[in-house]
Structures are given as structure tokens and as C-alpha cells.
């Protein structure tokens, strides 16, 4: 296959996934913010995750799609373009915000399932605002070095990184920080918390659910459904982002040399796929979300009946905490 044909296919793949990403996650945000029976604390965290996914899609578009439509500016303007558009720094911002949101959701699931009546750990709107603010503040702090070291090299006509000469190990340390902060720590936390949740829901009988005929089964079914959604999204993040984080570290330590454009493109495709697939996970697992989506696309006047199963309403249509 010729290089031009590969380029066309690559741009087509990115275009399909970016459009799917932006439209799908916009619909997730719209449904959660406009439908009263979808406005639960955990759903707000999912909306925050959708915002991060849109950021990833927009950044990928500026790198692999829109960049073909204009001539990259030079000088100071070129450096700013590198920082915010053409070098992918915003992609890393979106990725960090995604995993921190997923970690927060895992804590919510853990306390909701193992300590459902604890007011101390119960998620509410005030706590969601604090969690969201912390998520974005930590994300921005983590990414500050990227925005400082990117610049446009007029000699090579491309965006480059300029790390401080002293200390010489700074770029290596930064790659490790990324690998640990956005990879190892949140994924280990999610693995531990979800293993406890899975054990409680599927393998251990719980005395925390009211023994009312029909109620226990409905609540447990709702909890399992929500747990499947968030675990699926978390696993997808690990599968698609860890290769990029790993290669980033290996490259900094010269364990792999001259990572080719194909490897970089494949990693970018994986990251874009992760951001574009999440709305499909919600639609596949959540009947209520599917109904709202169908009402938006096909039949705006459809009235969606609300089925309340106590406090287990995440992505199922009740505003209470689960």
C-alpha cells in the first residue's frame, strides 16, 4: 500500500472516531444535564468524563485532520500552536482528567455498594463539585511542563520539546510521574476497589439491602448494571492508554530508539478509540440512556417512564445516590 493511501485511510479512521467521540459525548452531557431523572451525582462524574473525552477528540482532530487544511504558523504564533493544537498537549490533559474521573467513580461505587447507608461517604452534588475541581486542578498541574517545553523549531519546521539542561534527568522523571500518576496508581486503586465491589455483588450475600419482596432483586440488578458500565470504561482506559504511557517512559530512557510515526499513530488511534467508545458502553448497558438517546434522535416527544428502584439510579433515570 502506498504512503498516500495509508495517509488517507489514517485520516479517515481519525475522522470517523473524532466525529463519533464529539457527538456521542455531547449527547451524554446533554442527556445528563437536561433530563431531571438523570441528574445523579455519579452521572455528573460521567459527564465530566465526557468533557475530557471531547477534549481528546478535539486535540486529535487538530493533530491529524485539521493540520492538513492550513500552513503551520512560525515564530511565537507557531509555538503557541504547538502548545495548544498541533503537538497533542491537550490530549494528555483530557487523558489525565479521564483517569482521575474514573478513579473518583470507583470510590463512589465502592462506598455505594459496601456502605450504602453511610452519610459520611455518600456522594452528593457538593462533593461532586469538589471532586471535579480537584480533578481538573491536578490535571492542569500535571500538564504544566508540557506547555512550557513545547515550541516551534523553524529550522526543522516542526514542533519540538526543549527540556532544561539542568537537571538533565527532568524529562525522565516527568515520564515516570505520568506513568505512575495517570497509569499505575489509579489503575491499581480501581482494581482493588472494583474487586471488592464484584465480590460483594456477585459472590457474597449482603444484609445492606432492605428485605422487601422484589426490592432487593431490583436494587442488586441496578447496582450490577452500573458496576458493569464503569468497570468496562475503566478497563478500556487501561488497555488504550497504558501502551502510550509505557512507550513514553521507554523513549525517555532510550530503551526504544526513534519510535516511528506508525507506532505514534497507532497509539493515537487507541487513545481516540477509548474516548469515542464510552457513549456506546453507556447505551449498551443502560436501557434508560438508550431511551433518552432514541427520544433525542428519532422521537423527541417520547415520554420516558421512570422506574425507581430505591437509590440505585445511575444512568437508569433516578436522581438519588446509589
Automatic annotation (TrEMBL):
It is found in: Membrane. The chain crosses the membrane at residues 12-33, 45-70, 90-111, 131-152, 172-194, 229-250, 262-284. SUPFAM superfamilies: Family A G protein-coupled receptor-like (SSF81321). It comes from Actinia tenebrosa. This is Substance-P receptor-like. Keywords: G-protein coupled receptor, Membrane, Receptor, Transducer, Transmembrane, Transmembrane helix. Its main location: membrane. PANTHER family: TRACE AMINE-ASSOCIATED RECEPTOR 13C-LIKE (PTHR45698:SF1), TRACE AMINE-ASSOCIATED RECEPTOR 19N-RELATED (PTHR45698). One of its GO terms (molecular function) is G protein-coupled receptor activity. Pfam families: 7tm_1. Residues 24-282 form the G-protein coupled receptors family 1 profile domain. One of its GO terms (cellular component) is membrane. Belongs to the G-protein coupled receptor 1 family. It comes from the Eukaryota. PROSITE patterns: G_PROTEIN_RECEP_F1_1, G_PROTEIN_RECEP_F1_2.
Amino acid at each position: 500500500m502506498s504512503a498516500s493511501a495509508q495517509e488517507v485511510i489514517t485520516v479517515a479512521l481519525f475522522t470517523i472516531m473524532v466525529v463519533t467521540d464529539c457527538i456521542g459525548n455531547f449527547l451524554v452531557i446533554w442527556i445528563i444535564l437536561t433530563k431531571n431523572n438523570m441528574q445523579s451525582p455519579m452521572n455528573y462524574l460521567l459527564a465530566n468524563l465526557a468533557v475530557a473525552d471531547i477534549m481528546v477528540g478535539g486535540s486529535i482532530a487538530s493533530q491529524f485532520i485539521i493540520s492538513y487544511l492550513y500552513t503551520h504558523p512560525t515564530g511565537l504564533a507557531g509555538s503557541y500552536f504547538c502548545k495548544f493544537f498541533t503537538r497533542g498537549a491537550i490530549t494528555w490533559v483530557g487523558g489525565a482528567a479521564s483517569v482521575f474521573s474514573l478513579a473518583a467513580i470507583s470510590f463512589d461505587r465502592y462506598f455505594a455498594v459496601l456502605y450504602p447507608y453511610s452519610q459520611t461517604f455518600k456522594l452528593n452534588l457538593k462533593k461532586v463539585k469538589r471532586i471535579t475541581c480537584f480533578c481538573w486542578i491536578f490535571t492542569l498541574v500535571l500538564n504544566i511542563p508540557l506547555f512550557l517545553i513545547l515550541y516551534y523549531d523553524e529550522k526543522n519546521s516542526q514542533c519540538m520539546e526543549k527540556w532544561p539542561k539542568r537537571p538533565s534527568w527532568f524529562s525522565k522523571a516527568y515520564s515516570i510521574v505520568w506513568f505512575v500518576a495517570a497509569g499505575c496508581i489509579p489503575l491499581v486503586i480501581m482494581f482493588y476497589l472494583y474487586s471488592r465491589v464484584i465480590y460483594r455483588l456477585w459472590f457474597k450475600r449482603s444484609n445492606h439491602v432492605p428485605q422487601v419482596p422484589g426490592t432487593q432483586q431490583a436494587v442488586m440488578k441496578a447496582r450490577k448494571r452500573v458496576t458493569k458500565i464503569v468497570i468496562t470504561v475503566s478497563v478500556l482506559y487501561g488497555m488504550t492508554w497504558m501502551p502510550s504511557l509505557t512507550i513514553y517512559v521507554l523513549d525517555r530512557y532510550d530503551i526504544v530508539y526513534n519510535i516511528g510515526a506508525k507506532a505514534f499513530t497507532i497509539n493515537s488511534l487507541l487513545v481516540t478509540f477509548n474516548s469515542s467508545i464510552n457513549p456506546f458502553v453507556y447505551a449498551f448497558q443502560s436501557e434508560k440512556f438508550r431511551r433518552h438517546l432514541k427520544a433525542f434522535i428519532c422521537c423527541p416527544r417520547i415520554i420516558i417512564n421512570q422506574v425507581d428502584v430505591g437509590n440505585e439510579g445511575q444512568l437508569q433515570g433516578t436522581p438519588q445516590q446509589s
